Amino acid sequence: MKSDTSLCELTNVSVSFGEVDVLKGVSVSVYAGEIVGLFGHNGAGKSTVLKVLMGEFIPQHGLVTMSVPFTYVPQGERIFPSLSVEENICVASGVCKVPQFVLELFPSLKNKLQIRAGSLSGGEQQMVALGRGLIHKPKLLLLDEPSLGLAPKLVREVYGMIEHLRSSLGIGVLVIEHNREALMPILDRGYVMDKGSIVEEIVRST
Fold it and tell me: What is the pLDDT of residue 158?
């Protein structure tokens, strides 16, 4: 359930590269306990919004506020196939054992920690990627196309996991998604982008 605590905000943000305007007065916000979608075709500016939030791009205009620790889970290759599940979750985290709360969130991984991650199902591999992102207990998850390359059944499974994370941990989630229909069942709010601008805002009716 959404709270009044703002986790991150872009307010009237513009980003240009040379003569090209990539973001044009974009305003996006995520509050604790809500799932927010960012939709649009390739090149609409969705990934640039994430990069601004992560500090990779500095906007020429506008205000960026990031008030809590966050984790970014990129699209594409989500795991290291030759490493074990435990090694995947713990890599680069500074810990050498999977925290108990991660195993409670993803109980099907409990007996598979020493198995090569590449042998897992697509849904289990996404659990590993999410577990790695959650290991430091962020307040905000930034997810880039989590349904990419997954069969429809696994897409539903992955978004079921994300909704469970939101309800269990009270975190905020910002999801870049090309597959708008896949995210709609769990969406609280959304923004549709086109050519660097927000062209539609979506609010789920209660």
Answer: 85
